[in-house]
Structures are given as C-alpha cells and as structure tokens.
Amino acid sequence: MEELDLTQQQVDYGDSNIITLEGLEHVRRRPGMYIGKLGDGSHADDGIYVLLKEVLDNCIDEYRMGAGKTVEVRVKDGHVEVRDYGRGIPLGKMVDAVSIMNTGGKYDSKAFKKSVGLNGVGTKAVNALSAKFTVQSYRDGQTRRATFEQGKIVEDSGIFEDKSTEHGTYVYFVPDDTLFPDYLYKDDFIETMLRNYAYLNTGLSIIFNGKKILSKNGLLDLLNENITSEPLYPIIHLKGEDIEIAFTHSDQYGEEYYSFVNGQHTTQGGTHQSAFREAVGRTIKEFYNKNHELTDIRNGIIAAIAISVEEPVFESQTKTKLGSRDMAPTGGLSVNKFISDFLKKELDNYLHINSETANIMLQKIQDSEKERKAIAGVTKLARERAKKVNLHNRKLRDCRIHYSDTPGKDEHKNQLIEGSAIFITEGDSASGSITKSRDVNTQAVFSLRGKPLNSYGLTKKIVYENEEFNLLQAALNIEDGIEGLRYNKVIVATDADVDGMHIRLLLITFFLQFFPDLIKKGHVYILQTPLFRVRNKKETIYCYSDEERLAAIAKLGSNPEITRFKGLGEISPDEFKHFIGKDMRLDQVTLKKEDAVQDLLSFYMGKNTSDRQNFIIDNLVIEEDV
After folding, report:
1. What angle is formed at CA 327 by the lines to CA 325 and CA 331, rounded to 5 degrees?
2. What fold, for 25-213?
C-alpha cells in the first residue's frame, strides 16, 4: 500500500507543478523577502514605511550624485507622493525600471557610485505591493507617465514633449490594503526617517506635507536632537571623505549608537558599528596611555557614525544590518582599517587640541572604572548564580526561536526571529494564563514576584544584588549591551489597575536607568488587554475602552451580557490566546528629546514631592463601575 501511495505521489509531480511567476507576482506572494514584515503602520519598521523608504532612497541617490537639492513628500489618507528634481529615469526604460526585476541603473557603478539600492528590487517591490502605482519622469524637455495596479501596467502615455516642467521623477502609490489591512501612516515615524536623511545629506531640503526639514551640521544635529541626558562635554564632530562621526559621553549606563551606510539607517548595526566601537575605545586608551578597560571607556557613550562605501552587502533586503567586511571606501581599505585609521588620526588630534574635553572624558572613564571595581565582587557572584539558574530559570518560560538567532534564507524563520517576544508578568495567575495560551516558538514569559524594586537613583550594583533584576537581565541577555538581545519585543503585561500601572512604571524606570537603549531602539512595549467582554448567544466582542464597549452594545443590541475584567488572571487561557496572537495590541514605549530622562525619573520615581502629589490630584480620573 505504501509503495502504491509513493508511486501516486511521483506521478502527481509533473510539468503542471512547475510554476513560473510572471512579472512581479513573486513579490506579492513572498513580500517578506523584499520588505521584511507587512504590519499596519503602528511600528516604525512596518512594511508601509519600507515602501516609502525604497522610493526615497532613489531620490537621495540622485542628490548624492549631485542632481537635485529638494525632495517633496506628501502623505495623506494613506496616499503617498514623492517628487525629486534629479536627472529623471531614462524615458525609454522607465517602465522596465519600475516593473522588471533585476533592471536598474545602479548596476553601473559609474552612474551610482555609493548607492543604497544596488539590487534592482526597491521601486519594483513598491509597485507590486501597491493597489495603484504611478511613475512619471521628466527629462530633457520630454516626459512619460505610467500607471500600474498590483504591479500590472494599466496605462502608458508613451514619450511626449513637456518643456515647462523641471526634470526629475514623480512617484505616487497607495499600499494594497489586501496586504496591509487597516494600515495607517504615522507622521512621527515618517518625520524621523526624513530627519535622518537630512542629517546625512547636509544641504538637502525635504518638504514633508509643507514642512521643511533641513540639516546644516549633519550628525552633530542628529545627536543634539536625540540625546535625552545631559552631555558631559561638547559633542566631538569629525568629518572626512566618506566618513562622519559624532559622539559624547553622558551619565547614562551602557552605549548608544546611531549608524548609517550610504544614507541607510542600519538599526541593527553591523561591521561598521563594531569597527567604530573597537576603534574609538582603542584610540582613547592609547591617548591616555593607561590600561583602561574598553568597557569603562565606552560606558555612557552616545555616538553616530556614517560611512559611504561602494557596493555594500546587507544582511537582509531591508538593509538594517551591514554584513560585508571588505568593501572599498576611500583608498580601497577594509571597513575596519578605514574607520580605525580615521579615528587614530582625527580623534587623537582633537583630544590633544581640546584638553578640557580630554580631562572631562578621563574623569568619566575613571568614574566608570571605580564603580565597576566597587561592584566586581557582587557582579561575579551574580553571574555565577545566573549561570546556574539560566538553564532552569524558574521565572522564565522560554521560547524556541530568539531575536539573537542568525537570519538565513528561510523567509518564514526570519519572520519568526523578528516576532520573538517576552512577556513580563506579575503573579502566578497572570503568567499562568499567558504561558498556557502563548506561541511556544516565539513567545517567552518572565514572571515577577510582586512589585519590583524602585531602582531610581541606585547604581548598577543593584542589578546584580537584586535577584529578580539579575535574572531578568540574564533572560534578556543585555548585560554587555543590546547586541545580544534575545527577544525583539519586551512586553510588560500587567493589570490595568493602580498596582499594574505602578509595576509598569517600576520596570520602565529600571530600563531607563540601566538599559536606555532598549527603549530608544523601540524594543519595549505595554500589552493592552480588554477591559470588557460584550456578548450574546451569537457573537463575542472584546473591548479595550469605554467607547468600544458602547459600540459593541449598540451592535449586539437587546441586553447583551457584559463582563468587566479586573485583572489578567481573570481571563481564561482560551480567551487570552486572542489577545497575544495576530491581533495583539501593543503600545510602544518611546523616548523623545524633550523627555529628559533624569527629570522624568526624578519627578515620577523620586521622593514624594508636593509637586507630584498635586500632579496626581489634578490628573486623577475616577472611573465609574459599569
């Protein structure tokens, strides 16, 4: 019987099973290979922002080649328009350039020497994943316009005369809502992206919905806009051909980096960021000619580095991590040697000339060294303890796939890596419900025992002395920085009552105090859970607000049953799986320049001042029971 089945399977596999995907159909079937995750726009790395970025990269490449100083971006009601004033796509090949894979001008290094989009995929992916996509090129007194729907051409004007319009390229697209359901562009995310483009391309004007974005001082402006703790000395800003660096130290713990290659924000770092970390530590150590530890030198550093290279190799289509080592910037050097040589000369010179900055930096290094040595004993004991319990961490119910796993060619596996998450819960009942309903492949659970310690004003010694903090640090694998972070999303899952809110504050305080980069890089979230369940015999609706409750009552009509959830432990595992699955609602914890960390922590977590008491009284909301 088995042989018969096997033979049948072999017969069923024939010519008809071999499928050739026409045009851009492959992009529509496997969008993750081209733009990472899809998403709905609620996170900065969702696919709709990658679509915009792919179009913008072409505009920026034009500017970097000396063509066009202005880019106009308009986003309204999910419709996107981008207009540059570069050279314009060659008219004869314009349709091919946006619709046929592996077609583009960037294979010719003479035309685009240090471009981001080198694989001929970007704009074609935007075309394929858009309900409507229009491109128009203006060049040498002529123009051509073409319109596509889901990657298939529906209109082509052909080449005709137009002497009145400035040269350049216009792109209009609407993401396909069958792929991006209920998507919504957030202006804040777009503006951050555009600001980064401006910092890296001084002199470029970007007009976003009528607002002008311009940078005169490059990475110096970037750091000034993003630093949330007071710099200890004026930002050191160094520029050379194909490289720009800016950095300072603050009293915050850890290291914070903003790295870029050819204008692309490499949010996950890569070889250039690793080379900078190594080179800046070694250069400073050699300048002082003392046996400082590199970790002491880099503790509290806030830095930005941007390099331009020919033919960069990224680890994924979304280009968030640089993978190649032997590229050819100025002089044909490797990235490591290029960055090391630049710092050895320019930073060493700077420190010799600016003795006051050098003295402040030395004091910071010595303070870090003093603190590290003071807690060396407790650190060693804590590490040993964490090692012993790591495999059987009673607070951690781990998952199988982690953010620190190496991505590969398997698109599904890469999506699972991106989706890895850890829920930090309080109490056995809540963690029990999540544990029973979670996805064991990508969702871990860490259970707190009551309220964590208020860590405001304490030194890092407490991270090792407090067993709970030490085990959490070990579970996340962030002791030496977030490069080894095991979960992409660190989700605080507490009750929506006063105690739950307090636990959220205490955990956010812990992260802000000792691991601020975890929040600044967008890894920390708050889990939203429903406040009400409204149901009748036919339908159940979960409501996250009073407005949603009223809408559900209106929809179901005739006295539906209403349940108010007072805690996570009240929600059964069967119900909980709806709230941590594909429809999971998360609020990202974000930090802006105006959120001065020390001031925030002092106000909310410091001694109970009359200012805070008055604030609580003025903002107190008393919720009536339903």
Report:
1. 125
2. Heat Shock Protein 90 (3.30.565)
The answer to whether 47 touches 182, Cβ cutoff 8 Å, is no
Joined tokens for residue 449: 């025992």
How many CB atoms are closer than 10 A to CB 361?
Answer: 22
Asked if pLDDT for residue 396 goes beyond 80, the answer is yes
Hey, which CATH number is domain 376-528+568-607, 3.40.50.670, 3.40.630.30, 3.90.1150.10, 3.40.50.1000? 3.40.50.670
* Region class of 88: left (phi > 0), else alpha (psi between -120 and 50), else beta: left
Measured N-to-C along each axis, helices 610-619 and 597-605 cross at an angle, to the nearest 10 degrees, of 80
- Name the DSSP letter for residue 216: S
pLDDT in tens, 7-36: 444 444 343 433 334 557 777 777 767 777
How far does CA 453 lie from the centroid of its chain?
29
Please list the residues that pair with 553 across neighbouring strands: none
Cα–Cα distance for residue pair 612/584, rounded to 1 Å = 33
The segment(s) of the chain belonging to CATH 3.30.230.10 are: 219-373
421-426 vs 489-493, strand pairing mode: parallel
Structural contact between residues 450 and 494, judged by C-beta atoms closer than 8 angstroms: no
Q: Please give the C-alpha separations between residue 429 and each of 56, 79, 436, 437, 502, in angstroms, as whole numbers.
A: 48, 45, 11, 13, 18
Nearest to 595 by CA among 260, 252, 167: 252
* 446 bridge partner residues: 396, 424
Concatenating the DSSP letter of every residue in 297-322 gives HHTTEEEEEEE--SS--BSSTT--SB
Q: Residue 439: helix, strand or coil by DSSP? A: coil
In sequence order, what are the residues at sequence separation of 6 or more whose Cβ sits closer than 8 angstroms to the Cβ of residue 256? 301, 302, 303, 516, 517, 520
Q: What is the pLDDT of residues 88-131, one digit of tens each?
A: 999 988 998 888 875 554 434 443 445 544 334 678 889 989 99
Given the candidates 3.40.50.1360, 3.40.50.360, 3.20.20.70, 3.30.230.10, the CATH classification of the domain at 219-373 is: 3.30.230.10
Paired tokens of 280: 């800046």
Please report, for residues 191, 294, 364, 368, the alpha-carbon distance to residue 299 in angstroms, rounded to integers and kept in the order given.
30, 8, 9, 7
Q: What Cα–Cα distance (Å) separates residue 187 from each residue in 378, 411, 421?
A: 46, 29, 26
